[in-house]
Known about the structure:
Shape: globular
Strand content: 5-15%
Radius of gyration: 28 Å
Number of helices: 16
Structural class: alpha+beta
Oligomer: single chain
Amino acid sequence: SLACLKQFVDCLSQANPSTSHSMTKKCLLYFFVCLFVFAQKITPNILEESAISDDVLAPDDEGICTGKLFAVKGLVGLIENAAMLFDSGGLWEVACMLHQQLVPIHEQNRDHKKLGKIYDKMSKLQGRIVSESSRRSMGSYFRVSFYGSKFEDLDGMDFIYKERSHMRLAEIALRLETFYQLQYGTDCLEIIKDSKEPDRSKLDPDKAYIQVTFVEPYFDNYELKWRKTFFEKNYNICRFYFDIPFTEGGKAHGDLASQCKRRTILKTANVFPYVKTRIVVIHKESYVLSPAEVALEDMQRKYERLIEVVRQAPPDVKGLQLQLQGSIGTTVNQGPAEVALVFLGDSEQVGQDKTLRKLKHCFRDFVRGCAEGLERNKELISENQREYQRELERNFVEFRRKLEPIFGKKTSQRWIKKNREKTVLQNISRPSNSHVVSHKP
């Protein structure tokens, strides 16, 4: 994707107002629209990257704007080349947006043959977006911090590194350790193992320290209203976060009622993807999540993962069964049922706490999702897994029974459609002489 961005930057670098010498006013207007509106949609970095100093390009020099690129045909060629690179880099949405920018030009020229080719390419790109949606991956991100006077200007600075998909923390830590050991020596470099900010007074001034932490993209609630797809949640991102679990007793992990998190949000100077794989962090803030907020966030994630695999096309039977087993399995410690009993047992407290009310509403959605998942699994499994399906249904009814003291029996029954509830109860009431065997998906 770096080649894609660099090519597009080069494309818009040519879209300089000096092109008025060889272009019509209509084409020049198109350049400005492309540069100031469309380019910002492709990447907010574009204005900075396409800025060209007069030392590099002097528009007053004779012949500077007479090349092939400083014409409508040259612009079309550059955009087509950029679209091809975005396509090869797996950024099919951006390639579609680039092809759309060529439509007005070919419409103005009445070139229906080229219009047909553009729409054909866009159709294929949209098809790839649909068919590859479950297998896409757009990289992994890590916070890398440098400590020690040996790093000179880098001392105390944080960077976000973008690495290949599914890169492990140990891999990037080893790579950075090997690289900087060659510069400072094996005995003068140390990798900080945890994610907590180190106490600078306890660090050896004669050593260089590197801290590596896995981070994920961060979005506010208002952003999530328009960042719906996988692409939108991984493109043009500049904020990342990581969590440090802790309890009031000082331990990292504890029971549900005492488990807290300290969340740190980092903002970079530019957005990813970028022509560089490392961007400096310009702002950092942190706040604490209470046990109820931690539980709410965990349940929301469980629900999102469950619904995603339930409605996935083509279906993933193994993934669906894993989600169902982790959601309603009787052997799951500190699972959804335990969360509900810990935080929603006091109805008076739930009514006074906004976070707990949200958690209760999330449980309603979660139970509906489990019911939908059971129905979906029933449609997909073969005959040799029918007993496993009945076991899941029994676990589901037991799961609902545990929640009845919180939600009430009548309310609990309304969560499931009558035909689904009838199917579950009928399967449980069937006499069976066979021993129930637990099947692992």
